[in-house]
Specification:
Rossmann fold, UDP N-Acetylglucosamine Acyltransferase, domain 1, six-stranded mixed sheet, 2 helices
């Protein structure tokens, strides 16, 4: 299928690499208004007005921020009527009975174990893993080397950041951020930031609040 990748920054380049390695779809263009007229990974960059001319039938949204990714998926689907497709690197390991939702992007080294369910637009970074019977809800994300035990639930748009771990049977609520390197030993509620070993809630957060910030 001819597809476009929405987002031309770091995640977009990674997604194109995944799609090229998998070979299931042909990436014909990148959609990014801020880079329109340029080239990313050998593909022309267009804005929303240029999508129809690409002849694409499908799309992947490659944006690191979870809430933004979810919003853009909805907008592109409604505006252009394209099919949302997933991108799974051939070096990812996905169990036969696992369910990977449309729009999921799984980088090299990802492991999705038996009975797991990944929702729409889930992003799993390099070497992230979820053990058996874990559910990752729509537009949530696990950063590189983040990992869960079995029977874990990760809520909608929640982010488990670099190298964080969630032990067996824990539920992490919606719109929550688990800080880099944290170890989650007990359930976490919706709309909080939790950090440390063991992870402790340090403050509340609002849905859509940015969390991928560059240090000065």
């Amino acid at each position: 299928m001819r597809i476009v990748v929405v987002g031309g920054a770091g995640q977009g380049r990674q997604a194109i690499d995944v799609l090229e390695a998998a070979g299931d779809h042909e990436v014909v263009a990148v959609v990014d208004a801020g880079l329109a007229g340029g080239v990313v990974c050998g593909r022309p960059v267009v804005d929303d007005d240029g999508v129809a001319a690409t002849g694409a039938a499908g799309f992947v949204v490659a944006i690191g921020d979870n809430a933004t990714r979810g919003a853009v998926i909805g907008r592109v689907r409604a505006t252009h009527g394209l099919e949302l497709v997933s991108a799974v690197h051939p070096a990812a390991v996905v169990a036969r009975d696992a369910v990977v939702g449309p729009g999921a992007v799984l980088m090299a080294g990802v492991v999705v174990s038996n009975g797991c369910v990944l929702g729409e637009g889930v992003l799993m970074g390099t070497r992230a893993s979820v053990d058996h019977d874990t559910t990752v809800a729509d537009h949530a994300g696990l950063a590189p080397a983040a990992t869960t035990g079995g029977d874990v639930t990760i809520g909608t748009t929640t982010a488990v950041l670099l190298g964080a771990s969630v032990i067996h049977g824990v539920t992490v609520g919606e719109h929550t951020v688990v800080g880099a390197g944290a170890v989650v030993l007990a359930d976490l509620p919706d709309r909080v930031v939790a950090v440390g070993v063991p992870a402790r809630v340090v403050r509340a957060r609002e849905p859509g609040e940015p969390y991928l910030r560059r240090r000065p």
